[in-house]
Amino acid sequence: MALRQACCRGRPGRHLAGTGPVSDAPARPRRRASDAALTDWFAARGWRPAPFQREAWRRYLAGESGLLVTPTGSGKTLAALGGPLLQALALDDAPAKARRGVAAAPRLRLLWITPLRALAADTVRSMQEPIAALGVPWTVAMRTGDASARDKRLARKGLSDVLVTTPESFALMLSYPDAAQLLAGVRGVVVDEWHELLGNKRGVLLQLCLARLRGIVPAAPVWGLSATLGNLEEARDVLLPHRPDAPILQFARRRRMTLQTLLPNEGERFPWAGHLGLSQLARVAAVLQKARSSLLFTNTRSQAELWHRALQSVWLDDPKTLALHHGSLDASLRAAAEAGLRDGTVRCVVATSSLDLGVDFPAVDQVLQVGSPKGMARLWQRGGRARHRPGEAGKVICVPTHALELAEYAAARVALAHGRVESRPPLRLSLDVLAQHCVTLALGGGFEPAQLLEEVRGTHAFATLREEAWTAVLDFIVRGGGALENYPDYRRVIRDDDGCYRVHDRRVAFRHRLSIGTITSDGSVQVRYMKGGWLGSVEEAFISRLRPRERFQFAGKTLELVQLRDMTAFVRIAKAGEGRVPRWQGGRMPLSSELGAEVEAILHEPAESPEMRALQPLLDLQSRLSQLPGPDSLLVESIKTRQGWHLFVYPFAGRGVHEGLAALLALRWGREVPNTFSWAVNDYGLVLTAQSEAWPDAPLMQRLLTPEGLLDDLLASLNIAELARRQFREIARVAGLLPPSLPGRAARSLRQLQASSSLLFDVLRQHDPGHVLLAQAEREVMEAQLDVQHLKAVLTRCGERPLALRRPRSLTPLGFPLWAEAIRGQLSTEDWRTRVKRAAQQLEQRHARNA
DNA sequence: GACCTGCTGCGGGATG
Questions:
Q1: CB of A280 under 7 A from strand B?
Q2: How many angstroms separate the Cα of A20 from the Cα of each of A17, A27, A49, A152, A349?
Q3: Comparing A154 with A297, which gets the higher pLDDT?
Q4: Residue nearest the C1' of B7 (CA based)
């Protein structure tokens, strides 16, 4: 992004890339770039690279690969590598030599991969100036889905010297027969924001593509740029499996970050449960008034809509200075919000993670985080958006939505001080991605299976790929597997007489290129004005419950539904009133284990902090009624209420794990004593509610918490088949079993998609139960969704710790949010609110009496 | 007087 910061202090060149004659370029030292030559070149332009940059660049010149760790939220980071790399390439005469041959000869020298289209555009922009300064007639093209026709053409024909692209577009390049030829001149690869790809299937796709590239240009250095991670060495190994000792270079020191919490006033009642935090509206509005520009981060899209609406009602400035940004808003609206921040016409943007990522806009004066940040990486990232003076620590202002979040912030402060960040575990053996990649290569000129297997095993993701799985994948792309072979649609690849696998059918080729990539999101309804103009998308389940003329709140506006047609909701601005706010089904964002452990520790031994001081009365109540949780024991509370007999357990392991744990405990307890259990979880713990009398004792708890038989019991307690059915839809999409929606045609509804994927699932289960993708779906449920490894570790730890079994006379502060969560499913929202409110008041009264 | 959970990211091509 900010390439120019590092490499453009020199005299601007006379020629823009690609426009000037070669002979006019400033004299270049010599044909082969050397360290000394570069030093001279930089010195002549008054540019002094930082030591780590010099090191990165020296290593690059030596043909090495590596990982460059750069602080989050700093635009300068790209300069770290991009500058030296461009210089080195420019000093090397080879590109000019290549051009002296046939005019159409591929010139591609540098491949730059970023996970975001917007980042690609920024990168291209920032490269223009340094390249002009170098005085080389280079073309930089962007190859992404939204690139211009010119750029696409340049990329397609290999006529650009530098190509900035996404993993998906890179894969697409490989689907053309001339890919090897186009990439043959590549002399360097940069993978930007590698941490964003490391832990997901996009990263797996990129690993495969890079392995292919290594097959074409084995010597080309590959450099990753990554934010700090808990598993940097692993990140390096995944990117560079062929260079186990590649260097990890650290960008100077990370910026310090501090945290401030908007605390409740003395004596103020503060919610014990809830996630919205609107009770803090006045305080937040006051904080926003004080700064010129702010970002207010929320955790969910509907929360962002609600906060935007609430702020609007108290906003003193021009309403236009308050903007909204989340992933379901149309790109144009998001771009408008970003532009507003850039030109100063917007003072505050309410945003979700859509603004976490690296889009280039100037830092804002302050960053606020509503509710739990859930993990340290997110907090670093969001905090990095704030403007800092050099040497000054960054700051995040935290807005608690319920009392216990105060502890979370106090814990986060400790973790920030220690510079802790989560790991991103890389995926392994995603056979759906492998199947897609194989079809891509079959399309891109074909592949020889033994050779490809070796190449694929050269990646981190498939290093342990077994022969059977490989054969199954090949079988799958050739005939869809046993049950599907009668359907021509699934016979995509043909094994030719020479033993090579190729695609011959043009329709298959077309459909495959349309469905390249691993991001699946289907079944959303586009929202647009009657007069034209797109607003974004909402979920079918939400909009289909609205009647025409009914109002709803979306994109920061009150809209009126006119009609719903072809997966498009036509709307107009409503005259008055407020409407319902859409909800989206998204990721679950559990509290990270790092932060969870920190919370547990701080509750046990409250460090001196404003948050813990504010929380003290609540902690006192917790100790009085029961006891404080802590790392040295496992707190278990059992209580009888009108709803039944509750068992509260607090492992502080995050929602995902608690979900599995709750199901497990319910099953095991039910086995011992016939009873009916329901359960609810949050990030701190879980509650089981029994219909008949049930009091746990220590031996029972030990039996419930044994790691023995975990897998079998999990399989029995959760409807794994049903979970796998849902997981299968994504896998089937990635593997190419579901037809992509064609551009220009109405999107298929979620119901249709579910029907076709569900049907496939059933057919396969019945006729081909060993199908490679079914196994994949089950594995993903166990690993990704239930996080069995983590669950097992948590269970083991629970079993090892001495049990603190308490029977408090009323709900405790820790138990209350879980209890509220448990009865939420049973009651209407209105009843639930009343009930929770009454209960909270009773508890407080009792608390006041006893105090 | 309230105490509404569920993020993000990508992607076509032949023809005029």
A1: no
A2: 7, 14, 28, 22, 42
A3: A297
A4: A353
| pLDDT exceeds 90 at position A428 | yes
Q: Which residues of A762-778 are buried (b: 16+ CB within 10 A; e: fewer)?
A: eebbeebeebbbbebbb
> How many CB atoms lie under 10 A from the CB of residue A779?
18
CB A61 within 8 A of CB A240: no
Q: Which domains are present in chain A?
A: 50-95+103-250 (3.40.50.300), 257-417 (3.40.50.300), 524-573 (no CATH), 626-718+787-850 (no CATH)
Instruction: Tell me how far apart the alpha carbons of residues A148 and A253 are, in angstroms, rounded to a whole number.
Output: 39
- Best CA proximity match to A684, nearest among A796, A597, A778, A788: A597
Sheet holding A162-165, edge to edge: A140-143, A162-165, A110-113, A188-191, A222-226, A66-69, A248-250
**Beta-bridge mates of residue A679:** A688
The mean pLDDT value of chain A amounts to 85
Question: What are the pLDDT digits (tens) for A622-652?
Answer: 999 999 998 899 999 999 988 889 999 999 9
Residue A828 has pLDDT above 70, yes or no: no
pLDDT score, position A829: 58
Is there a contact between A400 and A330 (Cβ–Cβ < 8 Å)? no
For chain A residues 796-815, those near strand B by a CB cutoff of 7 A are: none
pLDDT surpassing 80 at residue A709: yes
Instruction: Record the tokens describing residue A792, joined without a space.
Output: 């097992």
Q: Which of residues 119-158 of A touch strand B (CB under 7 A)?
A: 144-146
Could you give the CA distance from residue A590 to residue A786 in angstroms, rounded to a whole number? 12
> Residues A537-566, buried b or exposed e (16+ Cβ, 10 A)?
bbbbebbeebeeeebbbbbbbbbbbeebee
- Residue A813 phi/psi, 5-degree rounding, is -55, -35
**Cα–Cα distances in angstroms (integers) from residue A596 to residues A374, A424, A726, A743, in the given order:** 9, 16, 28, 44
pLDDT at position A253, please?
67
Q: Is the CB of A252 under 7 A from strand B?
A: no
Q: Which residues of A516-532 are buried (b: 16+ CB within 10 A; e: fewer)?
A: bbbeeebbbbbbbeeee
Six-digit token string for A201: 């299937």
A824 Cβ within 7 A of any nucleic strand B atom? yes
A605 contacts A631 by C-beta, under 8 angstroms: no
Q: Which residue pairs from A708-711 have beta carbons closer than 8 angstroms and sit at least 24 positions apart in sequence?
A: A710/A664, A710/A788, A710/A791, A710/A792, A710/A795, A711/A788
Asked whether residue A246's C-beta has any atom of DNA/RNA strand B within 7 A, the reply is no
Nearest to A8 by CA among A42, A34, A52: A42
Asked if residue A656 keeps its beta carbon closer than 7 A to nucleic acid strand B, the reply is no
Q: Say which residue the tokens 């308490």 belong to.
A: A806
Other CB atoms within a 10 A radius of the CB of residue A405 amount to 27
Instruction: Say how far apart CA A109 and CA A95 lie, in whole Å.
Output: 7
In angstroms, the CA of A101 and the C1' of B1 are apart by 78
Q: Do the Cβ atoms of A482 and A691 come closer than 8 Å?
A: no
Give the residue ranges of DSSP H helices in A446-526.
449-457, 467-479, 506-514
Give a three-class secondary structure readout of A534-598.
EEEEEEHHHHCCCCCCCEEEECCEEEEEEEEECCEEEEEECCCCCCECCCCCCCCCCCCHHHHHH
Q: Nearest nucleotide by C1' from A742 CA?
A: B12
Task: Put residue A696 in one of left, alpha, beta given phi > 0 → left and psi -120 to 50 → alpha.
Answer: beta
Which tokens belong to A724? 């796998």
Q: Is A677 helix (H, G, I), strand (E, B) or coil?
A: strand
**Residue A241 dihedral angles phi and psi, to the nearest 5°:** -65, -20
Residue A837: CB less than 7 A from any atom in strand B = yes
Confidence class for position A100, pLDDT limits 50, 70, 90 = low
